[in-house]
Amino acid sequence: MLTALSPSVGVETMRSLIFGGTSGLGLSLAKASLEKGIEPVIVGRRVRPGAPMDARTEFADVCNEVAVATLMNKLTVQPSLGFGYLFYTPGMFLKGDVREQSDQQVRGMMDINFFGLVNVLRHFHRMKKKPYHLVAISSTAAWRDVATEAAYGASKAAMDRYVRNFHHQLVADLPGSRTLIVHPGGMKSRFWDGRGFDTTRFMDTDLIASLIWDEIHAQALGTHDALHEVHYIRQPDGTPRTVHGPNLPELPRS
Ligand SMILES: NC(=O)c1ccc[n+]([C@@H]2O[C@H](COP(=O)([O-])OP(=O)(O)OC[C@H]3O[C@@H](n4cnc5c(N)ncnc54)[C@H](OP(=O)(O)O)[C@@H]3O)[C@@H](O)[C@H]2O)c1
User: Fold this and answer.
1) Which ligand 1 atom sits closest to the C-alpha of 19?
2) What is the number of domains present in the chain?
3) Which pLDDT tens digit goes with each residue over 184-218?
4) How confident is the model at residue 80 (pLDDT cuts 50, 70, 90)?
5) What is d(CA 62, CA 107) in angstroms, rounded to the nearest whole number?
6) Antiparallel, parallel or unpaired: β 133-137 and 83-88
7) Which helix (H) or strand (E) holds 136?
8) Of 3, 6, 140, 180, whose CB is crowded by the most CB atoms within 10 A?
């Protein structure tokens, strides 16, 4: 309930800024935010079907520094838009034989999964004067040993390290802030379109979003530390198994 996310816990509670909120997990997080009375502003590159009609949508490519800076300036000149929550969900998948991946493909993925986050954090953090709750959507791929996901896993591991290190500055600059790093396994979303995967036993984004908001709630209550990590491991039946804390990288099995 909203009482646990009251202003007494430090962060501004009335609005959330959700990058990647036009689809998949970001969209589910935005819907859950609306249900909690925390008004979401969602950001994507284009209009997507299914976005909540009553959520304000902004358009910016996280890889474009000028676009992100312009968006932040626009939001800053509206002082009523105090964001207590920043979600970074954009991500791109890349799988396969490294010999068949182009430089452009790998850099394009790194741009969204890593440099986009760096870009968004730089400009959002400059704008903020009050504490906030940062939620970064990583992946179990950050620590899984997967032969065909060298670049994707590396992009998520880099993101994790960046966010963990950034957390020190966040709490030093704006005491009372919190960071949640989320590592989901396979979820049903547009992420998999055209890739030929059977996603029928993949996890439901609405369920994962609801679990993420529970963790945010637990951090606000002090049940978890100001920096917390959570993993939603996909079970064979498509349900998540929740594991808390950072994970060591798996060692190669052969
Ligand atoms: N789905 C899975 O099985 C799975 C598993 C583990 C981890 N993850 C991670 O979970 C996150 C969310 O995945 P999802 O399944 O929800 O994916 P999704 O349905 O493809 O949604 C991605 C969202 O990010 C936005 N986005 C992508 N590139 C962007 C850019 N350059 N600038 C601004 N917005 C951008 C998309 O909107 P536009 O395209 O309109 O810009 C969309 O709103 C990703 O980081 C992914 O790596 C997913």
Assistant:
1) 34
2) 1
3) 999 999 999 988 889 999 999 999 999 999 999 99
4) low
5) 14
6) parallel
7) strand 133-137
8) 180
